[in-house]
Design the sequence.
C-alpha cells in the first residue's frame, strides 16, 4: 500500500493543473485500447459508439480528457498503424485538440507516450487518404501522468490518473508485463485463460486496485478519478472520493463521466432500436448529476 500512496503522491505533485468552475464542460473517458483492426482489437466493435459520443461532446464544446490506455501499445508496436486504422476517431480528437479542448494521460498499456518526443514523432500529423495529403493531428502534444482540476471558488481539487500507479506488474515491471501480454497471455486468452496481471480481467486484482485508489482518496480527502479496472464507480457524497469512468471496451457500450455546471454524472453510450426498427446510438445517464462540492464537504 505504501508504494501506491507514494506513486499517487508523486503523480499529484507533478500533475498538470487546469482550472475548473461552473462553466466548465469536461468529459472523461479511458481504456479505449485502440488497436489495428485485427482479431485483437477490442475497440473495433465500439468505435461507432465512441465516434458518436465525441460528436455529441464536440457540438456542445466539451473538453475531452482521455485517462490513459487510449491506444493498445502492448499488443501492437506501431502507433501510426493504429492511427491509420481508426482515422475517423483521431480526426475528431484532433478537432478537440485544435480548439484547445483535448488532454491525454498515459496508462500502463500506452506508457511509451511518457517518453519525450514519442508523441511528437508519432502524433504530429497523419495521412488523410480522402484528401491525399498529410494533416496536423496533435502537434506539440504532451501525454501526462496526472491532471489536477482545481476549483478555486469552492476550494476543491479533482485528481485524474489512469490508476496503474504503484501496481507491481503494471507500473514497476510494466516492460515485463508488456512482453508477457504480447507473447504469452494474448495467445492463451484465445483459449479461455485470463491474464492474471490485468486489473480489468482478474476480479481479485480489480478489487485490490480499487481499494488502494479509494484509500489514497480517502486519506487525502481528494476526489480521485481513474480508469484501468474497466469498472465504473460513482459514490454517493459522504461515502467516498473514488470515481471510475469505466471503459470504452465494455460489451455493447461505452461509459464516461461528465462534468458540467458544477455537477458530475456517469453516462452510457449504446446502440438502441426505435419502435420502427431504426437503429441509433443513444446516451443514458446512469448516475447523477451530483454537485461536486458536496463531495468536497465530506
Sequence:
Amino acid at each position: 500500500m505504501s508504494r501506491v500512496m507514494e506513486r499517487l503522491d508523486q503523480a499529484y505533485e507533478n500533475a498538470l493543473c487546469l482550472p475548473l468552475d461552473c462553466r466548465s464542460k469536461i468529459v472523461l473517458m479511458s481504456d479505449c485500447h485502440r488497436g489495428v483492426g485485427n482479431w485483437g482489437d477490442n475497440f473495433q466493435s465500439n468505435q461507432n459508439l465512441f465516434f458518436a459520443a465525441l460528436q455529441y461532446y464536440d457540438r456542445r464544446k466539451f473538453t475531452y480528457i482521455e485517462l490513459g490506455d487510449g491506444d493498445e501499445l502492448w499488443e501492437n508496436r506501431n502507433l501510426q498503424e493504429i492511427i491509420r486504422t481508426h482515422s475517423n476517431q483521431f480526426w475528431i480528437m484532433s478537432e478537440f485538440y485544435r480548439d484547445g479542448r483535448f488532454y491525454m494521460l498515459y496508462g500502463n498499456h500506452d506508457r511509451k507516450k511518457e517518453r519525450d518526443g514519442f508523441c511528437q514523432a508519432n502524433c504530429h500529423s497523419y495521412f488523410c487518404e480522402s484528401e491525399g495529403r498529410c494533416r496536423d493531428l496533435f502537434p506539440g502534444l504532451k501525454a501526462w501522468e496526472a491532471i489536477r482540476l482545481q476549483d478555486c471558488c469552492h476550494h476543491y481539487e479533482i485528481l485524474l490518473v489512469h490508476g496503474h500507479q504503484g501496481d507491481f506488474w503494471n507500473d514497476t515491471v510494466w516492460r515485463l508485463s508488456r512482453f508477457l501480454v504480447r507473447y504469452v497471455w494474448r495467445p492463451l486468452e484465445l483459449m479461455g485463460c485470463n491474464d492474471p496481471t490485468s486489473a480489468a480481467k482478474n476480479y481479485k486484482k480489480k478489487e485490490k486496485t480499487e481499494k488502494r485508489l479509494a484509500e489514497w482518496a480517502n486519506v487525502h480527502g481528494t476526489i480521485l478519478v481513474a480508469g484501468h479496472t474497466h469498472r465504473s464507480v460513482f459514490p454517493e457524497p459522504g461515502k467516498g472520493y473514488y470515481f471510475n469512468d469505466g471503459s470504452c471496451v465494455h460489451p455493447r457500450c461505452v461509459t464516461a463521466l461528465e462534468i458540467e455546471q458544477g455537477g458530475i454524472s456517469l453516462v452510457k453510450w449504446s446502440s438502441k432500436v426505435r419502435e420502427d426498427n431504426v437503429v441509433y446510438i443513444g446516451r443514458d445517464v446512469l448516475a447523477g448529476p451530483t454537485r461536486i462540492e458536496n463531495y468536497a464537504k465530506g
About this structure: The domain at 2-296 is CATH 3.60.21 (Purple Acid Phosphatase; chain A, domain 2). The chain has a mean pLDDT of 89. The chain has nine helices and 14 strands. The chain has one domain: 2-296.
